[in-house]
Amino acid sequence: MVCGGFACSKNCLCALNLLYTLVSLLLIGIAAWGIGFGLISSLRVVGVVIAVGIFLFLIALVGLIGAVKHHQVLLFFYMIILLLVFIVQFSVSCACLALNQDQQGQLLEVGWNNTASARNDIQRNLNCCGFRSFNPNDTCPASCIKSSHSCLPCAPIIGKYAGEVLRFVGGIGLFFSFTEILGVWLTYRYRNQKDPRANPSAFL
């Protein structure tokens, strides 16, 4: 049977939402693992990751229920939300890929100054103190501060990985943004297809 009929559209939409469900559970699991093993102590970072995971899970659940039941209202709202998510995610992904080194440094410095708990995690894990310089009056959880060796600033160390991380995040975001526009197209097509087993007089 040619992939373009009602059953094929339904199966593709279900598979896509199962993928989103797995990704959402993975995000929640990574956040829980990071806080459980002490890798991340910033509740703000963990909260954002968990919130994104829950939001993605709810979207996938709406899409999955709408696809299984061929529910016109659920499919409509799912299509609209997915389109909005695509616009935001595509814009953020392109911005991550377009940042130059100066813009990356400014962005990292803003994040450094606004997240105290994440700053302590970075200093402890990368064994560095301060962003561009270290004030001896400030506290630093890095092990180098306890030894006779001078601590390096964190900006050069973070800068080595910032470009790779942003390219990775931008690439992953672009990949999933294209799956989202695929989901919008599948949902639009699926809503306009007739269920061969449904009652012809029924709308929902």
Automatic annotation (TrEMBL):
The keyword Nucleus does not apply. Keywords: Disulfide bond, Membrane, Transmembrane, Transmembrane helix. It comes from Vicugna pacos (Alpaca). Disulfide bonds join C129-C144. It is a multi-pass membrane protein. It comes from the Eukaryota. The keyword Repeat does not apply. The gene is TSPAN13. One of its GO terms (cellular component) is membrane. Belongs to the tetraspanin (TM4SF) family. This is Tetraspanin-13. The chain crosses the membrane at residues 12-40, 46-68, 75-100, 168-188. It is found in: Membrane. Pfam families: Tetraspanin.
